[in-house]
Amino acid sequence: MVKGRAEASGDMAEIKMIVGLGNPGKEYAGTRHNAGFEVIDSLARQLGADVKKKKFGGLFGQCAIDDKSVILLKPQRYMNCSGEVVATVRGFYRLAIEKIVVVTDDMALEPGRIRIRRKGSSGGHNGLEDIIASLGSDEFARLRIGIGQSAEQNATDYVLRRPGDEEKELIGKAVEKAAQAVICWVKEGVDAAMNKFNVQNNV
Known about the structure:
By secondary structure, the protein is α/β, with parallel strands linked by helices. 35% of the residues lie in helices and 22% in strands. The chain has helices at residues 35-47, 83-93, 126-135, 155-159, 165-188, 190-197; strands at residues 2-3, 14-20, 53-55, 58-65, 68-75, 100-106, 114-117, 141-146. Strands 1, 2, 3, 4, 5, 6, 7 and 8 form an 8-stranded mixed beta sheet that branches. Helix 1 (35-47) packs across helix 5 (165-188) and helix 5 (165-188) runs antiparallel to helix 6.
């Protein structure tokens, strides 16, 4: 059972943190690079959470899924400076590294695909790279949302632009699937989420 509108409390069995990566500001809303923010927004709607409190250098919210307290976090520094925010929240709540999942875009995946992993390198993603450096570990889960890539545009221009209608629909479906994968990660763990969602290549 998913519980909404619940604040984290000390009597809950454990706390997990879901971090969505993106760039702050209206000019970046809806861009490919902000897919992680969109997953947090989707989770907030589903769980009845409010992710508007400015705290720890990010937009911060709390809710509950079953007996687990869940932190929803959207760092409000630019993508390649996300790590300090994540590390600050982790330190405040004394979270074990395996209690963190980071949701981000991925140019190496086609639009509409998602992939969750237990740990790993940054894969060239600046946000993940900064988080790894700030945490001093790459052993946190990460969920990647495919945005594809362009042969005509350089990577920076591509990720900071909004997708066309067809691609936007694919990414939107992937965002909703990613939200479900994150809920599965909270409730059942990373292995269950990988088994259920990595095989579903197309959303």
